[in-house]
């Protein structure tokens, strides 16, 4: 990485404009711009002034790559299946040299492994750092497979592993969001156009996992389904899991139902036909709302899930369900209508779903969340959501509720 690029990333990581940094260092804005663009190398005086203003040494800012020190980061250590077959260490995530997204959250750092389902979105994603040494095995606690369960929750952390990460350049301010909506990456472009820009990282997972990550301070916002079994708003799960309360902001809405191969669609009017026809299913991971919908629908017709071929399979998101069906690996799955339409598959609606962003109270005042609130109401994002067949952008940016810690009680807007 060039010296100019390191200066730019260090400045942006601290939320400073070129003019602000120049004022702090006592140099001209043109001097800062020239160094960042690579048009000139800084004099010793300018290098010292810029490094001091940024709280760095000259070697860290302008020296060789090896001068960038390691940082300690909390590792998001679970794999995407609900029973966490892969955890940090012990041959799982957190191995030396593993690429991660590195994001500052509050006073600490979070490392999100770029492995398996998170390695990319139509190609490899840029890494923020490399793990310097293998992580010790992480302690985890079991959790309910029903994202709307009212059962007591363990207060043990989602993952206690910490690792040393060698940043690839200075860490940037990064909004980290967990959740299952494949439209979340649309946030990246408007966030990147802010001055200073905010990077974006998405951790795809089920609603319950997203809330636990938020409770452990590993993400800025948890994308979840907070409707109860009757379809009404229910802040209970967020209130029980997030110790200090939260704010709930709308993002999108869609219908959830049966995603079918076109060749079998004429044989199916509902789940009863799926069971009677012996059609093969692709399921979602425990804790996913789609899996809960499937389990409720199967219970309503008196069928055990184990009777359905493919019930034990686990896809990690709506698009993955549609991809498995389109590839002929399964005949049917429960997923979102937008995913079915994107793959030109048949769809039978079962329920209407709303996808909200739950922001822990301690993150509401952060610069990253402030940027999120700003872009949620942007015309560009609303138009992009509306352009996706099957999406309803009406809830995007709306304040849904303030959830009181420990109770789930809320003051809805």
Describe it.
It is a single chain. This protein is α+β, with helices and mostly antiparallel strands and about 425 residues long. It has two domains: about 60 residues, lambda repressor-like DNA-binding domains (434 Repressor (Amino-terminal Domain)); about 240 residues, Periplasmic binding protein-like II (D-Maltodextrin-Binding Protein, domain 2), CATH 3.40.190.10. The protein is built from 15 helices and 14 strands. About 10% of the residues have low confidence.
Topology readout:
Blueprint: H1 3-13, H2 18-25, H3 29-37, H4 44-54, H5 58-62, E1 71-75, E2 99-105, E3 108-113, E4 129-131, E5 162-167, E6 174-179, H6 188-192, E7 199-204, H7 207-215, E8 221-224, H8 236-241, E9 246-260, H9 262-265, H10 271-276, E10 281-282, H11 289-300, H12 318-326, E11 332-336, H13 337-342, E12 346-360, H14 367-376, H15 379-387, E13 399-403, E14 410-412
Parallel strand pairs: 1-3, 6-7, 6-8, 10-11
Antiparallel strand pairs: 1-5, 2-3, 2-4, 4-5, 8-12, 9-11, 9-12, 9-13, 13-14
Helix pairs in contact: 1-3, 2-3, 2-4
What is this structure, in a nutshell?
This protein has 413 residues and is an alpha+beta fold.
**Number of domain units:** 2
Our estimate of the beta-strand percent is 15-25%
Per DSSP E runs of 2 or more residues, the count of β-strands stands at 14
> Largest sheet at a glance?
9 strands, mixed
Q: What Rg do the Cα atoms give?
A: 23 Å
The level 1 CATH classification of the largest domain is Alpha Beta
| Name of the CATH homologous superfamily of the largest domain | Periplasmic binding protein-like II
* SSE ordering: HHHHHEEEEEEHEHEHEHHEHHEHEHHEE
At the fold tier of CATH, the topology name of the largest domain is D-Maltodextrin-Binding Protein, domain 2
Number of helices: 15
Shape: elongated
Chain-averaged pLDDT: 82
Which structural class best describes the helix and strand composition? alpha+beta
Query: Could you list the spans in which at least 5 consecutive residues all have pLDDT below 50?
Result: 78-90, 139-159
Helix content: 25-40%
Span between N and C termini?
47 Å
